[in-house]
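Entry for the shared binder. Reason: the reviewer on the internal report wants the predicted structure included alongside the sequence.
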Amino acid sequence: MSDSTRLRILNTIEQMCKLCVEQMYRLPSSLPSLTINGQKYQWNNNIDDRDRRDFTRYIYVLSTIHRLVRTQSRMNMRELFYSQVNLFHHQRVSDNIVEQITKHLCVDRRQLGLVATAKGFCSGNVQYRNLRSGEIINCNQLSNGQLIIDDDIEIIETENRITFILVVEKDTIFQHLLNDGFLTRYCGACLITGRGQPDHATRSFLLQLSRLYMDTPIYILTDCDIFGVLIACTYQSTFDGNHHNRIRWLGVWPEELLSLFSKSISQTLPITDERERRMITRFIQRSDINDEWRRQVSFFEQHQRKMEIEAIYESGTKKLIDDYLHDKLMGHRWL
């Protein structure tokens, strides 16, 4: 972060807090207030009032951010929540406050010294440099993958080209593929998982990787349910403009349910949850969805069945690699 950005953040926070102090001196004729991202939060004498509580929360988070930026320190988002758990009650409250402040200041969350708990993993011929510490991290060093940190990083282009990137929804499948020799069979491949819905660090890492290797295909493998499809959409939304369709969905596709398990329906699960059914209906009605993806999701509505990727392993330890993924990758079958 440049010194000018750092000073701008500090000055903006100081001016906001200075105004609150000046308003306090004029009590009771003037009540201290903050305007964050167009929303006004005001302190008052009612201890149970929502505005007073929100005002206090914002003042606390702003003071924490000021300290972090001034000292050029880092704090985990989880740490922020636990530093005043009785004030925030739920982490989504502190997370939302940080989000509103970043929008108000027009900066990235990490520029405020706040980082997320590392969640995603990467394994393959990828190296990156932590720009704060200077440390170079090799994603091939650990047998179970390298944690993707939420910090300022720079991916280093090496002599070892990446043949393709496979993003996997679940950590269990990510570990299965590593243990079963996926990176040995597909030399030059890179595996990434966000362990469910990907965090900012994982999506940012994938975006930077895709820009460095512009012609490298990016595939995604998810559970065959609406949640897996939505996770694929989250990754797809990482890219914009002409690169919006950079993600190629390998599966598991809903239309494959019958062919994969034509002899046994026990491998699939019924869709019984009403919330899940509503999510399917809403997805089909969306106007921003690829027609082929919409057609696939309509199969959920027709057959009311779903499946987890792990079910493919029940037919043999390496069936996912030797049969399913090999057929998709070699046959250029993706959506």
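Summary line for the report: Residues 3-25 form the longest helix (23 residues).
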